[in-house]
């Protein structure tokens, strides 16, 4: 089947095939073609160019469907490289507590936070978990996300971590979104191990990781390496155990303090280190000499009223960065990547070009799929969206809080 999108006002995010991430000044480069066409065959982008170069020999036309995109733009789908979108219940009570003045850490210490989600998840069946996560997936799909990473970490027992990861596996096989699964058993210490934290680390290493690996449930391994959560030493032990089973690290670091988590992530060749509100010169230098993608989650800093990561400084120092939603019930109950794009510009002072690259090609890199998606490139999956009529691509982050997407195409199919 062949799909032709013609009269595109501007085709945005074109990259050569060998580019899988953009760093420093490259992030401000956004290649586009005005008044253009794009051709999709069998789910892949096979051709694009200027309308005046469109020749009907460019595609086999037996089954040609045409979309006229006059006044509208085409973008590569967003990649959301950090979410916790499988969860059992909302936590608006804690949100009200936060409004009244309690901090995220205080709520966690009272047994709220992640432990509250773990309790709810324990009481919820695998089917119910699947159904609610499916709804969230459908929601983010219609807001422009074409690929998403989903973490476990609300189980915190062998059985419940397996339950979460089995749900993610089912989502993977049934959804049109590209999904990657991350094992985050080291998200918090369960109440049972409150006074035996190393005992829980041993449970993760000796029981959880082997069981998860034997069912092939996780692509990546994550640890919340931060003040009051997992130490650098515990993080190293867990990452080493995961690596033995082929799970590449992607870690939570430096959200609450200078935790050393960025250094540990880079040491173990993490695909990404995420949050990074506390990032100084030392952390930036470590990241500069690495293949690790620093990933910012502005939704969490915004929702929790916490400091924002020094993104301008990071990019100006030469780093590439990714943006993701952190969609979860406690610190960022939104998976809207259009909002994240705006937050990148508003709160981090990213240029629209930088924020678009951070939510597409760089976030694809941060979930290990930059060779398949994240840009308009011949041979990549046809995962893209057509906007409503918009005056410019800068308008996408500018007109914040509105849905500016009209048509979603995943694997070449209109959704
Ligand atoms: O990425 N920082 C740790 N974990 C999540 C929050 C999870 C929760 O509060 O439920 C995060 O923000
Ligand atoms: Fe997170």
CATH architecture assignment name of the largest domain = Alpha-Beta Barrel
CATH topology of the largest domain: TIM Barrel
Please identify which CATH superfamily of the largest domain we are dealing with: Metal-dependent hydrolases
How many structural domains does the protein architecture include? 2
- What is the CATH first-level class name of the largest domain? Alpha Beta
Structural class determined from secondary elements: alpha/beta
Strand proportion: 15-25%
Helix residue percentage: 25-40%
Describe it for me?
There is one protein chain. The chain has 415 residues and is an alpha/beta fold. The chain has two domains: 2-76 and 374-414, Urease, subunit C, domain 1, CATH 2.30.40; 78-365, Alpha-Beta Barrel (TIM Barrel), CATH 3.20.20. It is 35% helix and 22% strand. The protein has 15 helices and 16 strands. The strands form two sheets. Strands 1, 2, 3, 4, 5, 14, 15 and 16 form an eight-stranded mixed sheet that branches. Helix 6 packs parallel to helix 7 (232-244). The relative contact order is 0.17. The mean pLDDT is 96. Bound molecules: N-(iminomethyl)-L-glutamic acid and fe (iii) ion. Residues 82, 84, 252, 326, 328 line the site of fe (iii) ion.
């Amino acid at each position: 089947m062949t799909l032709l999108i013609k009269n595109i006002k501007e085709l945005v995010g074109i990259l050569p095939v060998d580019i899988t991430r953009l760093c420093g000044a490259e992030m401000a480069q956004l290649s586009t073609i005005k008044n253009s066409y794009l051709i999709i065959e069998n789910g892949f982008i096979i051709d694009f160019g200027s309308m005046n170069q469109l020749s009907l020999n460019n595609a086999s036309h037996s089954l040609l469907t045409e979309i006229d995109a006059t006044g509208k733009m085409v973008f590569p789908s967003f990649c959301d490289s950090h979410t916790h979108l499988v969860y059992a219940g909302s936590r608006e009570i804690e949100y009200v507590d936060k409004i009244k003045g309690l901090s995220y850490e205080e709520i966690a210490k009272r047994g709220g936070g992640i432990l509250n989600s773990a309790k709810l998840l324990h009481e919820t069946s695998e089917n119910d978990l699947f159904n609610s996560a499916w709804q969230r997936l459908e929601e983010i799909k219609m807001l422009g996300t074409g690929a998403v990473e989903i973490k476990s970490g609300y189980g915190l027992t062998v059985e419940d971590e397996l339950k979460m990861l089995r749900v993610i596996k089912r989502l993977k096989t049934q959804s049109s979104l590209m999904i990657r699964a991350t094992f985050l058993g080291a998200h918090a210490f369960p109440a049972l191990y409150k006074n035996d934290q190393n005992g829980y680390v041993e449970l993760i290493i000796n029981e959880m990781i082997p069981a998860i690996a034997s069912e092939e449930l996780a692509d990546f391994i994550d640890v919340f390496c931060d003040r009051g959560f997992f130490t650098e030493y515990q993080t190293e032990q867990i990452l080493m155990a995961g690596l033995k089973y082929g799970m590449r690290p992607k870690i939570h670091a430096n959200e609450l303090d200078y935790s050393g988590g960025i250094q540990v992530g880079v040491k173990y060749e993490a695909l990404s280190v995420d949050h990074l509100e506390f990032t100084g010169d030392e952390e930036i230098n470590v990241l500069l000499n690495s293949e690790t993608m620093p990933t910012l989650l502005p939704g969490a800093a915004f929702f929790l009223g916490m400091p924002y990561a020094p993104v301008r400084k990071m990019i100006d120092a030469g780093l590439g960065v990714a943006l993701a939603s952190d969609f979860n019930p406690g610190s960022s109950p939104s998976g809207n990547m259009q909002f994240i794009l705006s937050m990148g510009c508003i709160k981090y002072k990213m240029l629209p070009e930088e924020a678009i690259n951070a939510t597409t090609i760089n976030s694809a890199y941060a979930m290990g799929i930059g060779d398949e998606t994240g840009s308009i490139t011949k041979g990549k999956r046809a995962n893209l969206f057509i906007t409503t009529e918009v005056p410019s691509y800068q308008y996408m982050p500018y007109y914040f809080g509105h849905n500016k997407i009209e048509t979603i195409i995943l694997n070449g199919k209109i959704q």
